[in-house]
């Protein structure tokens, strides 16, 4: 891979990386009648991920971040930091709308934005579409 070619390499899921990026679940329409249970499950999932690496979990507002902090405290201590920056999203599925980290030649990090469109299914997707650029 040469720098002149502009080639990028997407590291495999199992390769070491600095953090896992998530969005805290908040859209009641995505989790009808189950949002509280889903949020508790996210707290436990984050606690387990944070045993090995940092976690960045976007929250839509300060009140949601505070609720997330309470649930994370109830789930138990984490070995690595958990960051809860306020970043408004439409949904919580960051694999499709979040930043995609790739490597340039020499291992330099680059961020891709895959131009999310809500899978052409949801009318609300513009906040999600802006997330990769915010990374």
Could you describe the 3D structure shown?
- The chain is α/β, with parallel strands linked by helices and 135 residues long.
- Helix content is 30%, strand content 15%.
- It has 5 helices and 5 strands.
- The protein has helices at 35-49, 62-75, 94-97, 126-129, 131-134; strands at 19-23, 54-58, 82-83, 100-103, 109-112.
- It has a 3-stranded parallel beta sheet with strand order 1-2-3, with no helix packed on it. The protein has a two-stranded antiparallel ribbon with strand order 4-5.
- Helix 2 links the parallel strand 2 and strand 3.
- Helix 1 packs across helix 2.
- The longest helix has 15 residues, at 35-49.
- The two termini are 25 Å apart.
- The model has no long low-confidence stretch (mean pLDDT 87).
Unreliable spans are none
Kindly state the number of beta strands: 5
| Portion in helices | 25-40%
Work out the strand percent: 5-15%
Give the overall silhouette.
Answer: globular
Q: Which sequence of SSEs, written as H and E, runs from N to C? A: EHEHEHEEHH
- What's the tally of helices? 5
